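queue> pop job 88
queue> type: inverse folding (structure -> sequence)
queue> payload:
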């Protein structure tokens, strides 16, 4: 498809589209996004804010905006989030400034968020397109969570219980992609995104 790239200082001819990618924790959303994003023109990833601790390989403003609970509370009170949820012991939110500026410039914006956040975005911005990344089965998801070695056994059980609820919500989404193979699922996600940009899910 053809994308219009505005000249510097020129207003875009269209507003970008909001692309929400959701699915259970550990299903591989970030991996698929990293595969697909370089293939998409005029598309950017909006980084979420979170109160969870920064992991060793992460940097402030790269994977997330890492906030204290007090900083998060202040942004909630100021209405700076499109959506915000508590997931486990941590909080996550999408900053409106991360999204609106890009959409207004004609850039498509990808959000990687959990089910509650995706539902909140759909309520506030019904024109958003929702993509659900599913595991082949719960057993596969358990192996992925255990393989990450970032959660305690109790946390893994909590995430798996929540995953069952999330898997039951697939009918709320415009597109469903099963991540049984990163290469195959990335191709399918790319095709689904391109279809949505051409009006397939409108």
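queue> result:
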């Amino acid at each position: 498809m053809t994308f219009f790239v505005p000249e510097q200082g020129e207003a875009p001819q269209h507003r970008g589209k909001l692309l929400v990618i959701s699915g259970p924790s550990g299903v591989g959303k970030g991996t698929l996004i990293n595969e697909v994003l370089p293939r998409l023109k005029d598309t950017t990833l909006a980084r979420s804010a979170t109160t969870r601790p920064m992991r060793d390989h992460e940097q402030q403003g790269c994977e997330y905006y890492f906030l204290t609970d007090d900083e998060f509370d202040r942004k909630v009170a100021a209405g700076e989030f499109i959506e915000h949820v508590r997931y486990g012991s941590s909080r996550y939110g999408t900053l409106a400034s991360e999204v609106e500026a890009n959409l207004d410039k004609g850039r498509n914006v990808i959000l990687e968020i959990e089910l509650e956040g995706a539902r909140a975005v759909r309520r506030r911005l019904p024109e958003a397109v929702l993509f659900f990344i599913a595991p082949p089965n719960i057993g596969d998801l358990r192996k992925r969570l255990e393989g990450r070695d970032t959660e305690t056994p109790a946390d893994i059980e909590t995430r798996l219980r929540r995953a069952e609820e999330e898997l039951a919500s697939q009918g709320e989404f415009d597109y469903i992609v099963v991540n049984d193979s990163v290469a195959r699922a990335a191709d399918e996600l790319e095709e689904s995104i391109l279809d949505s940009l051409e009006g397939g899910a409108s």
